[in-house]
Amino acid sequence: MFLEFITVLSTDLLFFYRQVSHQVLTVVDVETTGHHPNSSRVIEISVLQATLESGIHHQQTHLINPQVSVPPSITQFTGISQEMVAQAPLAADVWQDYLPLLNTGTLTAHNLSFDYGFLQSEFRHLDIGFTRPISEQLCTVILARLMLPDLPSRSLPNLVKHFDFPIATSHRAEADTLACWLLAKLLLTEIQTESDETLLDRFAKQWLSLRDAAAILGFSTQQARAALKRSHVKPRLVGQYRTPQYQRGEVEQLFRESQSSNQLSLLQDF
Q1: Are 136 and 170 contained in the same domain?
Q2: Does residue 16 sit in the same domain as residue 44?
Q3: Between 214 and which of 90, 153, 207, 224 could a Cys-Cys bridge form, CB atoms 3.0 to 4.6 Å apart?
Q4: What domain range includes position 95?
């Protein structure tokens, strides 16, 4: 869903994020009974609306009775128990109230693909279609990877600690929505105020997967690996499986060189 924003060139990303920084952000977080929308339900939602210019102007939060069991592991992780949701309103009563909010502003979340998948699933239960244009979606995980490439983790709790945000708890919707807003506010303010040159230098340090590097280059992953190796672009190897990652700046440089070569070949054909 978000591949377009990961794999486009830095200049396109800069334009997109500068546009978003002037929009209303509709920040959402959901707590759920599991990891997969097809087999799990939402048990808590919070939505916050804010702009960089005026700050937070609305937030609302609800527990939801999913009419299914809350696993003990979820209670341990979130603090939300079966007893708590049993006293909450049913999903049908909650989601109708949230639909107008979720349909306005730029839909924003930390790991938006997770929250967006659950939003779509919950509305499907009510026979309501819910989609937002990709140009009106902002994932702060993707933004943090771009703006904070040297941090060892971009998980929300770790970013809260790193920036010393005044958030008392994690893994509850209201607190996580506020944390996501503070992160978006910080990074988008830098997008607004730093020079093009400074930001593009920061973007160039982002580490990309082979798949994302291949998408920028317009190659298959096998072709991209070979082309990067020929150009002496050295990856870093991460994780148990030593997965290769490549810095955005070097990938984009190879892209520009390949474009120049293609243009030269076309000229020579005339």
Answers
A1: yes
A2: yes
A3: 224
A4: 3-198
User: Does residue 180 contact residue 140 with C-beta atoms inside 8 Å?
Assistant: yes
First-residue to last-residue Cα distance in the chain: 40
Report which of 139, 126, 135, 130 is spatially closest to residue 28, judged by C-alpha positions: 139
Query: Is 18 in a helix, a strand, or coil?
Result: helix
The total of structural domains in the chain comes to: 2
Structure tokens at 79: 């603090």
Q: Which pTM value belongs to this model?
A: 0.92
- Residue 118 confidence (pLDDT): 98
Q: How far apart are CA 72 and CA 194, in angstroms?
A: 46
Let me know how long the chain is. 270
**Nearest 10 degrees: CA dihedral of 210, 214, 219, 223?**
-20
